[in-house]
Amino acid sequence: MRITGISTHVVGTPWRNLTYVQVHTDEGLTGVGETRMLGHTDALIGYLREAEANHVAGSDPFAVEDLVRRMKYGDYGRAGEIVMSGIACVEMACWDIKGQALGVPVWQLLGGRANASDNRVKAYANGWYTVERTPEAFHAAARAVVERGYQALKLDPFGTGSFELDHAETVRSLSLVEAVRDAIGPERELLLEMHGRFSPATAIRLARELEPFQPAWLEEPVPPENLKALAKVAEKTTLPIATGERIHDRIEFRELFESQAVDIIQPDLGHTGGIGEMRKLAATAETHYVLVAPHNVGGSVLTAASLQLAGCTPNFKILEHFNDFADAEIKKVVKNAPEVVDGYFTLSEEPGLGVRLDVDAAAEFPQQQAHFDLWAEGWEKRDGKGGK
């Protein structure tokens, strides 16, 4: 079997464009991969066009390791977000082809079920708080999440906070967290996102004030570039620290593990070179007693691929899900899209990734000039208008 070429399809919304890549073969099998780029979609499409000619076309889709190595190192330049995302789309599509050809789900090819003994993977909701920043609005929105059966949800309550958060905004942010905790009760997981907003001193102060609400983690409390700053926060709080969505190479996680400053890593499968690369990273995390909770802000193909990893990874914690609350209509572009029922995904038994791209449905959502600025007023509405 040989790859004959690839085709790309961009599904657009005001705040995010989702790029789907189909890998075609001479035996009629087609695999699909996906990533979500912020502001670099055209660059990704351009890279994939060159990579198709230089590396992908003519390759054996079963030889995933060799293809990834050539795409990553064969152009000599250092692979960053765009290259690693392009690799991820092609790589997960190859796993999809391999699973279809052999008649088994990808998680079976990666070692079999290890973390879903009851065939379920816990989900947490994101993208649900597209409301006014008032306790009443956040309380009602959180109740809607609970009523859908979710057992965990995440929010960033900190507005446009950057480095510091003044007293008035601190009081307001804490009131939002208090309202959400009241809405979901003590038994459900509350995950707090900081989006790398703060200085260590501010993050430490906020962590102390957030402890009574018992968040299951504190995510990206400081910008991701300075691991000593992250370690400083980790040393001063009892809350678990999560980070990693903006690291695009498993090798770059080495210093993070060595720092002992993280409890949960959050690599994005669509930015970290794909399923095989993530499996290696998860195994390294396990040797450091670190859990894995992938960043998953894409659509249903990326979710399906992340679930394959969940099924075979002992230290897998939970999977993020946006598409019940943000752009829910785009789920129709993928057939057999994973769904959350009573707070859990069901691990698919279908061959490959278990999903198919509906190209006609995808065409109903053309690429947009999507923009998402986390430091702009109203960003939480995810309507493409905040600060634009």
From TrEMBL:
<feature type="domain" description="Mandelate racemase/muconate lactonizing enzyme C-terminal">
    <location>
        <begin position="135"/>
        <end position="240"/>
    </location>
</feature>
<dbReference type="InterPro" id="IPR036849">
    <property type="entry name" value="Enolase-like_C_sf"/>
</dbReference>
<dbReference type="InterPro" id="IPR013341">
    <property type="entry name" value="Mandelate_racemase_N_dom"/>
</dbReference>
<dbReference type="InterPro" id="IPR029017">
    <property type="entry name" value="Enolase-like_N"/>
</dbReference>
<dbReference type="Pfam" id="PF02746">
    <property type="entry name" value="MR_MLE_N"/>
</dbReference>
<dbReference type="InterPro" id="IPR029065">
    <property type="entry name" value="Enolase_C-like"/>
</dbReference>
<keyword id="KW-0456">Lyase</keyword>
<dbReference type="GO" id="GO:0016829">
    <property type="term" value="F:lyase activity"/>
</dbReference>
<protein>
    <submittedName>
        <fullName>Dehydratase</fullName>
    </submittedName>
</protein>
<dbReference type="InterPro" id="IPR013342">
    <property type="entry name" value="Mandelate_racemase_C"/>
</dbReference>
<dbReference type="InterPro" id="IPR034593">
    <property type="entry name" value="DgoD-like"/>
</dbReference>
<dbReference type="Pfam" id="PF13378">
    <property type="entry name" value="MR_MLE_C"/>
</dbReference>
